[in-house]
Amino acid sequence: MMIQYIFTKDGRIDREIEVRCQKANSINYQLAPLLKHESIPIATKAKLINSIFLTTLTYQCQTWPLTQGLKNKLVTCEMRCLRKAVNKTRRDKIRNEVIRAQVGATPVLQHVENQQIKWFGHLMRMPTDQPAHRAYNSRYSGKRPRGRPRRRWSDSVADTLKGHNKSLCEASHLAVERRLHLPATPDGTSGRKK
Fold first, then answer.
1. Are 81 and 135 in contact, with CB atoms under 8 Å apart?
2. Residue 124 and residue 116: Cα distance in Å, rounded?
C-alpha cells in the first residue's frame, strides 16, 4: 500500500481534509448495504463505523491544525455515515447529538483530539536529536506577513488541553512521565489498560 502525502506551497491542509472526506465517503458508500440493513444491531454498525469509516476519515490526523471550517467538514462527513446507520435523513430534522447517542460511535473530533494528545506525548518523550522534536522546539525569527497568523498544530493541542483544565507546560511534564490522561480515555491517552 502506497502512502500519499499532500504538500501545498502555503502549508495548508484543506486539500488533505478533502481527500480524507472523499475516501471516507467511498467507504460509506461501500458500507451502505450493511449500515442500512435493519436486522443488523446498532452496536455492530457502531463497531463497523469506528473500525473502518472513522480510521479512514482520520488517517494521519495527529498533526492536523484544524480550523473551525475544517472541523465542520469532518463532522458533516461523519454525520452522513451516522444518519445512514439509523436510517434517517436531514429532512427528519433530528439533531446530530441525538443521532450520535443512538449510534454510540466515537465522535470524530474527540477521536482527532485523542490522537493529537497521543502524538504530543510521543513528541515530548522523543530524544532531542529526532527531527520531529527539533522542529517542534525550533523558533524562527524574521518578519511575519500581514494578517492573522495561521493556526498551528500546537494551538490545537493547547486548546484541547485548556478544555481539560491543563496547561501546555503541565501537560509536557505529565507526558514525559507517561501520566497525561484525558477524561475521554480514562486509562491513558492510548486507551490501553495498565
1. no
2. 12
Cell digits for 33? 448495504
Strand partners, 182: 185
3-state secondary structure of 65: coil
Q: Report yes or no: 159 and 115 within 8 Å, Cβ to Cβ.
A: no
Distance CA 165, CA 143 (A): 33
> Which residue, 91, 22, 90, is CA-closest to 56?
22
SS3 state at 182: strand
Tell me what pLDDT residue 181 has. 74
Look-up: residue for cell 524574521?
Answer: 142
Set of cell numbers at residue 44: 455492530
pLDDT score of 192: 46
Q: Where are the domains of the chain?
A: 14-105, 107-136+152-194
**Cell matching residue 113:** 483530539
Residue corresponding to grid cell 520531529: 132
Question: Model confidence at 179, in pLDDT bands (50, 70, 90)?
Answer: confident
The pLDDT tens digits of the residues spanning 111-142 come to: 999 999 999 999 999 988 988 888 888 877 78
Q: Could you count the other beta carbons within 10 Å of the beta carbon of residue 175?
A: 19
Of the candidate ranges 55-59, 82-86, 131-135, 136-140, the one whose mean pLDDT is the lowest = 136-140
